[in-house]
Specification:
The protein is an alpha/beta fold. The chain has two domains: 104 residues, no CATH class; 81 residues, Rossmann fold (3-Layer(aba) Sandwich), CATH 3.40.50. 37% of the residues lie in helices and 25% in strands. The protein is built from seven helices and nine strands; from the N terminus they run H-E-E-E-E-E-H-E-H-H-E-H-E-H-E-H. The strands form three sheets. The chain has a four-stranded antiparallel sheet with strand order 3-4-5-6, with helices on one face. The chain is globular, with a radius of gyration of 19 Å. The relative contact order is 0.11.
């Protein structure tokens, strides 16, 4: 996505009503008024709902180090920023990408969408790996996406993870894992560092 597209994306977010000191609720999704990112406290600057046809697809909230109403000021603001996305429907990556791209283009952004990776489930599981799982010789499993959790459950079976700590990246991934029959011990609300922390919490939860 070009720089113009990035600017217009933030402009579209900032065009939404900026919420005050209390948490916001959009389409039944409660957004915290603050969150921690890289040991910094961010505040909710704006939030909105994305629809595709007549269906609600996701709620998105923009978190900044301090509230800003000008797009240029947002882009110039130093420190971490976070766009928190909460899925409202069980959609695949392609459908979500289309909805996101449509939303950005509707806001006037110039968008170039490219596929960085796809989750492909192996055709069969290594017998030794499956045996190690069932014997409790695998300490923990971390899932970074719902498709990875579903693929694991389809390939190895939910029962294979019963003796292993399970951590998921995000609520949507955790929900998909549970729907696939997996027990989830910890959920990371963030990126890879938070997922690593969730693995530690999952291990403690299993041992405790």
């Amino acid at each position: 996505m070009q720089k113009q597209g990035q600017s217009l994306f933030f402009a579209a977010m900032l065009a939404l009503a900026a919420f005050g000191a209390v948490a916001a609720e959009v389409a039944g999704v409660k957004l915290d008024d603050k969150m921690q990112v890289e040991s910094r406290e961010l505040v909710l600057n704006g939030a909105g709902l994305r629809k595709r046809v007549i269906f609600n697809v996701y709620v998105i909230g923009l978190y900044l180090p301090e509230k800003k109403n000008d797009p240029a000021a947002v882009l110039a603001l130093p420190g971490p920023k976070r766009a928190a996305i909460h899925m409202l429907r069980n959609v695949g990556a392609d459908t979500f990408t289309e909805a996101l791209v449509d939303g950005l283009r509707a806001a006037g952004a110039i968008v170039e969408a490219c596929t960085l990776y796809r989750t492909v489930t192996a055709r069969q599981v290594d017998p030794e790996v499956l045996r190690a799982l069932r014997e409790g010789r695998v300490d923990a499993i971390a899932f970074a996406s719902g498709s990875a959790a579903r693929g694991f459950a389809a390939l190895a079976g939910p029962a294979s993870a019963e003796r292993t700590a399970v951590a998921c990246m995000g609520r949507q991934c955790a929900e998909e894992a549970r729907k696939a029959g997996l027990r989830v011990d910890a959920v990371a609300d963030g990126s890879l560092p938070e997922l690593c922390d969730a693995v530690v919490l999952a291990l403690h939860a299993r041992k405790g």
